[in-house]
Design brief:
By secondary structure, this protein is of the alpha+beta class. It is built from 9 helices and 11 strands. It has helices at residues 2-16, 18-23, 27-30, 32-52, 82-89, 111-116, 143-150, 178-181, 240-245, and strands spanning 96-101, 107-110, 120-127, 133-140, 158-167, 170-177, 187-189, 191-192, 195-196, 206-208, 221-227. It has a 5-stranded mixed sheet with strand order 2-1-11-5-6. A 4-stranded antiparallel sheet has the order 3-4-8-9, with no helix packed on it. It has a two-stranded antiparallel ribbon with strand order 7-10. A hairpin with a 2-residue loop joins strand 8 and strand 9.
Length: 253
């Protein structure tokens, strides 16, 4: 519940401006001692979950008839930039996914190339931090395949997803570590419910990282970057919501 309230406060603050955002923050949540305790709790949760489950343990998958009749959009429903509008008007014909950072072979892949790759299809439940969930069918290549094509260099520890949408003027981004990046259910999805991914749900490409909460499933992905540390990325906490509202970086479910 505290995360839901924090998210609403942040959104309201972005509408009112930066001053409103700062004013809406909880004084207790901003206290260094409390923040340190929360982050230590997040680390404990990550290590506990990974200690109790196998590295490649799968999130539950469902039958086609169990899919939700409506799979709502959350966050950005359509990036409000001229570049994205031009891509959408052209059916994303010229959209390319860049893969770089600490890789041996930087890539720039077209949607045609990505859609021609072997795809994993999975029907999974999406759990939003705001309390709702929905079951949908997703298809796309495993992220591990893309990373293998690029060839991770020694020292790479995290994978960062840079997105076309912006929230309050800030570019959306998210990140995961290599354990989740190479999980068999972590895919770069281009299809949803047997159709091309709709714009409200992240077209043309979105991340599906099925063992984590919804805000980790970055939409409108245009660049993937392998890094050794998250310190130099935006606010340094590994994601937009982590930076501006102290969401957990590891949002395991």
């Amino acid at each position: 519940m505290s995360r839901i309230l924090t998210r609403r406060r942040v959104l309201a603050g972005m509408t009112a401006g930066a001053a409103g955002l700062v004013a809406g923050c909880d004084q207790l949540g901003n206290a260094p001692a409390v923040r340190d305790l929360l982050f230590k709790g997040e680390d404990a949760q990550r290590w506990l979950q990974r200690g109790l489950t196998a590295r490649n343990a799968l999130a539950p998958e469902y039958r086609p008839d169990q899919r939700s009749p409506i799979f709502r959009s959350n966050g950005t429903a359509r990036p409000d930039t001229p570049a994205y509008a031009a891509h959408a008007a052209a059916g994303f014909a010229d959209w390319r996914l860049a893969i770089g950072g600490m890789v041996a072979r930087p890539l720039s892949l077209s949607l045609e190339q990505i859609r021609s790759m072997p795809a994993r299809t999975q029907i999974t439940r999406h759990d939003c931090v705001e309390g709702w969930s929905a079951i949908g069918k997703w298809s796309g290549p495993r992220l591990s395949r893309l990373l293998d094509l690029a060839g991770l260099r020694d020292g790479a520890r995290y994978i960062v997803f840079h997105c076309a949408d912006r929230l309050g003027g800030r570019p959306y981004y998210e990140s995961i570590d290599l354990i989740d990046a190479f999980h068999p259910q972590t895919i770069v999805a281009w299809a949803m419910n047997d159709r091309l991914l709709p714009i409200p749900n992240g077209a043309p490409l979105r991340l599906r990282v099925e063992r984590q909460l919804g805000y980790k499933h970055a939409k409108y992905v245009e660049r993937i970057e392998a890094v050794a540390s998250l310190d130099g990325i935006a606010g340094g906490k590994g994601g937009l919501w982590e930076d501006i509202a102290d969401y957990d970086w590891y949002a395991g479910i």
